[in-house]
């Protein structure tokens, strides 16, 4: 009496567990006596069963693995291998289609994308000194204004858009407030897929005046803000700071902040290295600044691993590397390297980018 | 037998009461002694090809699916767990990998079929460490290889149409240059 009751309990518990653990479906828990009789059945029917299971095993192919398992494998891959994975077959493609993918092996070191080379060719330098070549239509004749979390903010043919060069995902921004890019710099607060993403584009009208355009996710009209103040040096780098605050760094030690949290507010600062005797009016930044990141990395590389050939000129756009040094982000500034012989040189453009495949749902717009 | 009118809820209630009792006993019992008793203990598993294998409890402990049962029933040595998705060959491989403390060198000796079946088995048995280990091993095979090599190694038929393939190569074009030739 008691024994049979226990079996009933087990089976009940089993069907209960099945909701939690899908693989459980095929497991039965039996007392030895019952299992023995079952294994007798198995032995008597050994030939047909094993042939059948062998045939099943042959049909059980790599491409037929559940997508959930395939996507776990894809998640272990570096970015370039992830892109290959997507090209193997339809099932592997689908299994890796609806996720963003970050290159774990890069340990948050950014990669360098160089464009406007010969014949619209782009080259990509990974943090592990590998070089990849491609043609990316979106980068032809484009100017990159900002780079953040694997996304680029590009200006091309009178429009501004977000673009991920790895997934080729593109998000257009409405009503572009600028007609051409001269000395404009820009920054955005988060991936354009995030609810609270905001974008700012800064234009330096002259030594005394700054003009800024701002657009938040879901909005159609850019807001315009002006700031007049001390003679500014040339503004070089824009960066998102926190909440709705952006920073603009000039080529010297000047910093202008724009905070749109409540009523938009501008402030000017002088940047200096933090010393022990900081005064209460000092603001301690959450990032460290590297103004010669490109130059340093180019010099460290030798031979054909170098980013530039002898007579190349380049202007690069930086990015932010999260928590690069302890709790501090690393802000890579924009740089300009002029070739010794200007007249003969190639003019390249470069941008530091997080190696990330950014997925955007098909119906998503700004 | 469960009495006819007895609803499943009632059975569950009794089970819970039983479990409470068991837990009560465990608290009273000497924990160190319980641990000692478990050492060397084996659990019988019946594989998909009908082989009964005695597997050390330390390995079975990683199989969360079996643990659910051991936890849900007052098991004794006479309990047998059929694992209908795992062959004796794969179970032996799994035992070796666990005993070898998940050394990636061991994974290099596995065929692509074994890699796949271990992955499926690890998922089925809910062995988290093994699953991560084998996913990493498969990722290591793919690393720095061309798409053609990957298809060839895993015996995968390219089921894209020519147009689809051309489009894919265009969008994922980075993948096709600068990879190691193997």
From TrEMBL, chain A:
Matching SMART domains: FBOX
SUPFAM superfamilies in the cross-refs: F-box domain
Coiled coil: none
InterPro entries referenced in this protein's UniProt entry, alphabetically: F-box-like_dom_sf, F-box_dom, KIB1-4_b-propeller
Gene3D superfamilies documented for this protein: 1.20.1280.50
Name listed for the protein in its UniProt record: F-box domain-containing protein
Range of residues in the leader sequence: 1-20
Domain named F-box: residues: 65-105
Record has Signal as a keyword: yes
Organism: Vigna unguiculata
Keywords, sorted A to Z: Signal
One protein family per Pfam: F-box
The keyword Heme is annotated on this UniProt entry: no
Organism domain of life: Eukaryota
From TrEMBL, chain B:
Coiled coil region boundaries: none
Organism of provenance: Vigna unguiculata
SKP1 component dimerisation domain span: 128-175
Assembly description: Part of a SCF (SKP1-cullin-F-box) protein ligase complex.
Protein task: Involved in ubiquitination and subsequent proteasomal degradation of target proteins. Together with CUL1, RBX1 and a F-box protein, it forms a SCF E3 ubiquitin ligase complex. The functional specificity of this complex depends on the type of F-box protein. In the SCF complex, it serves as an adapter that links the F-box protein to CUL1.
Annotated protein name in UniProt: SKP1-like protein
SKP1 component POZ domain mapped to chain residues: 41-97
Leader sequence residues: none
Keywords: Kinase, Transferase, Ubl conjugation pathway
Source domain of life: Eukaryota
GO biological process per UniProt: jasmonic acid mediated signaling pathway; protein ubiquitination; ubiquitin-dependent protein catabolic process
Listed SMART domains: Skp1
Family: Belongs to the SKP1 family.
Pathway stated in the Swiss-Prot or TrEMBL entry: Protein modification; protein ubiquitination
Keyword Kinase in record: yes
Molecular function (Gene Ontology), one example: kinase activity
């Amino acid at each position: 009496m008691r024994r049979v009751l226990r079996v009933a309990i087990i089976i009940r518990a089993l069907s209960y567990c099945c909701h939690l653990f899908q693989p459980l479906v095929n497991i039965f828990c039996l007392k030895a006596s019952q299992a023995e009789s079952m294994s007798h059945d198995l032995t008597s029917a050994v030939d047909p069963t094993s042939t059948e299971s062998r045939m099943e095993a042959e049909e059980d192919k790599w491409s037929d693995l559940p997508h959930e398992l395939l996507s776990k494998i894809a998640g272990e891959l570096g970015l370039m291998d992830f892109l290959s994975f997507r090209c193997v077959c339809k099932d592997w493609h689908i299994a890796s289609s609806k996720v963003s993918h970050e290159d774990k092996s890069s340990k948050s070191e950014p990669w360098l994308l160089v464009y406007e080379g010969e014949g619209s060719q782009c080259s990509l330098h990974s943090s592990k000194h590998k070089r990849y070549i491609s043609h990316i239509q979106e980068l032809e004749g484009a100017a990159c204004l900002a780079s953040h979390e694997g996304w680029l903010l590009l200006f091309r043919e009178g429009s501004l858009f977000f673009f991920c060069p790895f997934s080729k995902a593109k998000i257009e921004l409405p009503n572009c407030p600028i007609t051409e890019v001269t000395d404009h710099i820009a920054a955005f607060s988060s991936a354009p897929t995030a609810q609270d993403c905001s974008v700012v584009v800064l234009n330096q009208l002259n030594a005394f005046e700054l003009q800024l355009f701002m657009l938040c996710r879901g909005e159609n009209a850019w807001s315009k803000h002006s700031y007049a103040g001390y003679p500014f040096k040339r503004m070089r780098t824009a960066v998102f700071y926190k909440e709705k605050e952006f920073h603009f760094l000039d080529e010297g030690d000047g910093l202008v902040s724009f905070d749109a949290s409540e009523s938009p507010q501008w402030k000017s600062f002088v940047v200096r290295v933090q010393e022990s005797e900081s005064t209460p009016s000092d603001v301690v930044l959450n990032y460290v600044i590297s103004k010669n990141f490109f130059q340093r990395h180019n010099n460290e590389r030798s031979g054909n691993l170098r980013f530039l050939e002898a007579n190349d000129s380049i202007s690069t756009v930086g990015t932010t590397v999260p928590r690069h040094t302890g709790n501090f982000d690393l802000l890579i500034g924009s740089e300009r390297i002029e070739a010794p012989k200007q007249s003969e040189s190639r003019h390249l453009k470069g941008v530091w980018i997080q190696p990330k495949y950014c997925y955007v749902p098909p119906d998503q717009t700004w | 037998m469960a009495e006819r009118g007895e609803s499943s809820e009632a059975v569950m209630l009794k089970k819970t009461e039983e479990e409470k009792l068991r837990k009560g006993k465990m608290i009273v019992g000497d924990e160190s002694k319980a641990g000692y008793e478990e050492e060397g203990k084996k659990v019988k598993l019946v594989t998909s090809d009908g082989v009964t294998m005695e597997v050390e409890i330390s390995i079975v402990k990683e199989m969360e699916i079996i643990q659910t049962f051991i936890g849900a029933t007052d098991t004794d040595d006479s309990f047998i767990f059929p694992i209908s998705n795992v062959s004796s060959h794969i179970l032996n491989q799994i035992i070796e990998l666990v005993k070898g403390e998940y050394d990636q060198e061991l994974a290099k000796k596995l065929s692509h079929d074994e890699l796949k079946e271990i992955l499926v088995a690890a998922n089925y048995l809910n062995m988290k460490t093994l699953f991560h280990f084998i996913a990493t091993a498969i990722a290591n095979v793919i690393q720095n290889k061309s798409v053609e090599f990957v298809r060839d190694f895993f015996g995968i038929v390219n089921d894209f149409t020519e147009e689809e393939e051309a489009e894919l190569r265009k969008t994922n074009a980075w993948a096709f240059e600068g990879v190691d030739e193997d």
